[in-house]
Specification:
single chain; about 30% strand; globular; about 0% helix; Jelly Rolls; ten-stranded antiparallel β-sheet; three-stranded antiparallel β-sheet; mainly beta
Length: about 475
């Protein structure tokens, strides 16, 4: 069985609580820049020299759903760095260079303690160790380390059920829910905010039965690597990257990205996620590691890149899928835009280092049965980092496994004090959240042999769940 020999608990507390959106765990620090403005959708992207495609139509209410909109994705203060945001009248003091916009936050450290960074806005939460720390009418969810309306159905009485930390009325028909401005999810038998994107206001999308603020505005685009990525028509993230032509560089201003040549001329910013752009060539398929839509455990092959997904844990708890078994994508319900499948693992009862999802970049083994196979090094020197969509609950760290930190038994070169991989801490929640992890910001935790991060000798990634329990979904994993 795969193991992470040498991993220790009792380290500095990781900041990866899956709360709501990209955010902070209670009092933790982030090891790298997490930017909610990347990842791939399956909609057509315009070419690098094409005209920007038009946005999808604005979503109507579609139901009795209400909610305040976020000022995050629609902010229009242009910037090239955070110095340009110092005098922003709305207090958006951080520059999202990928979009050329001032925002309130991009990562945990941009917010005050006990705040989440959700859709570029700092949102307060009440931290807790137990329910005595919570205000009246709330209980502590110890897995999240924060106060919520409910942690289980028992907190809601007999007439209501607990859904994403909120008590919802039980229902058999929309008639049971519409008086509360909600809809009936007949599959689970309780009221929810939304079932589809059209059930939400135009500046929100439906994620895990809730209307959440759009990550971006349809018609906008962002720089991802040296290419442009269009905002999807439902606002939940960005579509496929259209690389800039040779000699041009991606630049963004006020939510619009374009490829700029040495003479100042620019190409198009690519098509909208809901329609096709014109001219140029399509997205950079070599950046996509796995979109999971083929339904198997292997990543998408490209050149020497080949590998598969597998699970591993410390042996003290129960993980699904179990270690040493075939790891297949899981159906997303409801679908995340055009994405129907994602990798999903959950577990509980762990008392050691925890459990993990791993993926190799250069391993020709079949992956069937979850064996180690023969992992080899893969060179990521031309990449800036990885991006993906995530949702879940628990405490998480994303790490890049290299020859220098992986054990000899697992194909690495480490003989002692191993598995102190270079990584960063992360917070996601019940809603799908786009995440960027920059290679330049990775760091070891300090319990193992200190080594420099070598981009030429990367074996793969692991999404490490620490603590007693976790639940993690990963979709559209790619380089940028």
């Amino acid at each position: 069985m795969r193991s992470l020999i040498g991993v220790r608990l009792g380290l500095a507390e990781l900041t990866l609580l899956f709360g709501v959106g990209i955010a902070a765990a209670c009092g933790g620090d982030s090891d790298s820049v997490f930017n909610g403005s990347d990842s791939d959708g399956s909609a057509g992207a315009g070419g690098a020299s094409g005209n920007a495609g038009t946005g999808g139509g604005a979503r109507d209410g579609g139901g009795a759903v209400t909610g305040d909109s976020s000022t995050g994705p629609d902010a229009r203060s242009s910037c090239t760095n955070s110095l340009d945001c110092v005098d922003d009248p709305e207090g958006r003091g951080v520059c999202d260079a990928s979009r050329g916009q001032c925002v309130e936050c991009l990562q945990l450290t941009d917010c005050q303690p006990n705040h989440d960074c959700t859709a570029y806005v700092c949102v307060a939460f009440v931290p807790c160790k137990n329910s005595l720390d919570c205000p009246s009418g709330m209980v502590c969810n110890p897995g999240l380390g924060r106060c919520v309306e409910c942690a289980s159905d028992a907190d809601c009485g007999t007439e209501r059920a607990c859904s994403n930390g909120k008590c919802r009325a039980r229902c058999a028909s929309d008639n049971d829910c519409t008086p509360f401005g909600l809809l009936c999810d007949k599959a689970v038998g309780h009221c929810v905010r939304c079932l589809r994107h059209v059930d939400c206001p135009a500046d929100q999308y439906c994620s895990a039965d809730e209307c959440v603020a759009d990550v971006c505005s349809p018609g906008d685009s962002a720089c991802q690597g040296n290419g442009t990525a269009p905002c999807l028509s439902d606002g939940q993230g960005y579509g496929a990257v259209a690389p800039c032509p040779t000699g041009q560089t991606c630049r963004a201003s006020a939510g619009r990205a374009s490829c700029v040549g040495a003479d100042g001329g620019s190409g198009g910013s690519g098509g909208d996620g809901g329609s096709s752009g014109t001219g140029g060539t399509g997205g950079a398929v070599d950046l996509m590691i796995d979109d999971m839509e083929d339904g198997d455990q292997r990543i998408l092959p490209y050149g020497s890149r080949t590998g598969y997904w597998h699970s591993t844990n410390d042996g003290t708890g129960v993980q699904t899928p179990a270690a040493n078994t075939t790891f297949l994508p899981t159906l997303i319900s409801p679908a995340r835009g055009t994405s129907a499948l994602a990798m999903h693992s959950s577990g509980s009862g762990f008392t050691g280092w925890g459990s993990a999802i791993q993926v190799d970049f250069n391993n020709a083994a079949s992956g069937i049965g979850g064996g180690i196979g023969s992992p080899r090094a893969y060179d990521v020197s031309g990449m800036s980092g990885i991006s993906f969509y995530a949702r879940g609950s628990g405490t998480l760290r994303v790490e890049v496994r290299t020859l220098a930190t992986v054990t000899l038994a697992e194909g690495g070169a480490c003989a002692t004090l191993c598995n102190d991989h270079h990584g960063a801490n992360l917070t996601v929640g019940s809603s799908w959240t786009p995440v960027n992890v920059s290679f330049s910001g990775l760091a070891q935790r300090g319990f193992g042999t200190p080594v420099a991060f070598a981009r030429q000798s990367v074996i793969g990634l692991q999404f490490l769940g620490l603590g007693t329990s976790f639940d993690l979904w990963i979709d559209d994993l790619r380089f940028y």
